[in-house]
Design a protein that fits this description.
Strand content: 5-15%
Number of helices: 16
Structural class: alpha/beta
Radius of gyration: 28 Å
Helix content: 25-40%
Largest sheet: 6 strands, parallel
């Protein structure tokens, strides 16, 4: 579309590929701004590619003359001209695109029809020009995709749906305490639409209030979530430590972006892993779940909820801007495919004293999971203390005893260590690979592509992804 785009994207384009260039933008000043001393369209630097020079802006303005739009307004539709040309190149149906444009600009019918006209003009240009000797067709999905109903879904939307599904499977209300921050805000926006599923969303005055409200909701018996990105995690760290001490289920959803500090709000980076693992005072272990693709955010949200509810612990869910805004086909699961996440709240005393009195001990643990009982406030006979000061094992009374503190620290670590972790996922078809590329989270896609490129080049490569705790 312009010289800057060509310079930025050319390194990713394989030799022999087709490049469509909007020649109207390749004037002296825009080229000089990005370091072109001569025109790349004329100096031979693009000889390794099949270059198609198209005056997109001029053709778009010409196609929209009948609408009487100012030139600047008409030029905005050149993207639609390009989309029409690509739709022709890839044999894509045009009806859905035209319907989308008319719906998007329903309140501005002239703009809607202008965009449709530009789209059609691009398609007709591809149909009539002799410059394009090739066209392409996207074949139907192969049998690698299991049968079912599919839809396109972004990572943040999949994550929001996963949280709702987890709450329904746990038969708990879903509570989100959040403060808007890029690139996590979409989750707040989406969940606020689903009050009919028992979802409550609270846009707090700051990050600390958001997680404080969420932790209070967890104490009250809800599936509690707070969403944020890197700078917000720093502000929430004290309350995450409190959740570790209270041993209450809490999902901390971190849609990572570049750091440090406010860093790069709109750019992707796996910047928060060490912060998620160790960014708290004292010994405060927290499980970490990291989805690998946009659609996997749905499954990761359910898995994070399962861990939090089963083990009574806060859980980090580390997505990032790449997954949040990316999209892919997602098979909509059937309800009976989802796990049963229902929990048993404490309803009666669980300990008998020497004198025969029955009392409730808030830190009397499940022998398998080491999780403490979850008692909803107001349950008769289950009054107990909460707070950040160390508790005595079993009774929950405040304790400064060194031996007790050592025991509680080790028990919380053991509880996290007991969480079942999926086996490491290894991709090595030949079994002979000597090069290993190890990645986690959203690097799954780039690592997979890199290993495939190695194999095409005759080198055996192996890809591995650790179990996502």
């Amino acid at each position: 579309m312009n010289p800057a785009a060509l310079r930025a994207n050319l390194p990713d384009v394989p030799r022999g590929a087709e490049i469509i260039v909007n020649t109207d933008e390749f004037t002296k000043r825009p080229m000089a701004k990005v370091g072109y001393d001569t025109s790349p369209l004329e100096d031979g630097s693009l000889d390794a590619y099949n270059v198609h020079p198209v005056p997109l802006t001029t053709l778009t303005v010409e196609a929209l003359k009948e609408f009487g739009l100012p030139r600047k307004e008409a030029e905005r539709s050149k993207n639609m001209f390009a989309l029409g040309l690509l739709s022709w190149m890839y044999h894509r149906p045009t009806g859905n695109t035209e319907a989308f444009l008319r719906k998007k600009f329903a309140k501005k019918p002239q703009i809607a029809e202008a965009n449709v006209a530009a789209f059609r003009a691009g398609w007709n240009f591809g149909e009539t020009t002799e410059d394009f000797a090739v066209s392409y067709e996207v074949a139907p999905a192969t049998a690698a995709f299991p049968p079912g109903s599919y839809r396109s879904i972004s990572g943040n939307l999949a994550l929001a749906y996963g949280l709702i599904a987890a709450a329904r499977q746990a038969d708990l209300p879903l509570y989100l305490g959040s403060y808007p921050i890029t690139p996590a805000s979409d989750i707040l926006h989406e969940l606020s639409k689903h009050k009919n599923f028992g979802v409550r969303t609270f846009q707090a005055e700051d990050e600390i209030a958001g997680i404080g409200a969420a932790l209070g909701a967890a104490f009250g018996g809800a599936l509690a979530v707070t969403t944020t990105s890197g700078p917000g995690v720093a502000l929430k760290s004290e309350t995450i430590g409190l959740a570790v001490s209270l041993e209450l289920p809490l999902l901390v959803v971190d849609i990572q972006r570049g750091g440090p500090s406010t860093g790069l709000p709109t750019k992707t980076e796996q910047a928060d892993l060490l912060q998620a693992m160790y960014g708290r005072n004292g010994e405060a272990p927290v499980p970490v779940v990291a989805p690998k693709t946009p659609a996997d955010c749905f499954t990761a949200a359910i898995d994070a909820a399962r861990i939090a509810l089963t083990y009574r612990t806060p859980v980090f869910l580390l997505s990032d801007g790449y997954l949040a805004n990316g999209s892919e086909p997602w098979r909509i699961p059937e309800p009976d495919e989802l796990p049963d996440l229902r929990v048993q709240f404490a309803t009666t005393p669980n300990h008998e004293l020497a004198d025969g009195t029955e009392v409730f001990w808030p830190y009397k643990r499940d022998p398998e999971t080491l999780a403490r009982p979850w008692a909803v406030p107001g349950t008769p006979g289950l009054e107990h203390r909460i707070g950040g000061i160390e508790k005595q094992d079993g009774t929950g009374n405040i304790s400064y005893d060194p031996a007790n503190h050592d025991f509680m620290v080790r028990t919380r670590q053991a509880k996290t260590d007991n969480i079942a972790v999926p086996d490491t996922e290894v991709d090595d078809p030949s079994g002979q690979a000597r090069t290993l590329v190890l990645g986690w989270g959203s690097t799954y896609g780039p690592v997979t592509a890199a290993v495939r490129r190695l194999r095409r080049g005759g080198l055996e490569g192996r890809r591995a992804r650790p179990g996502h705790r």
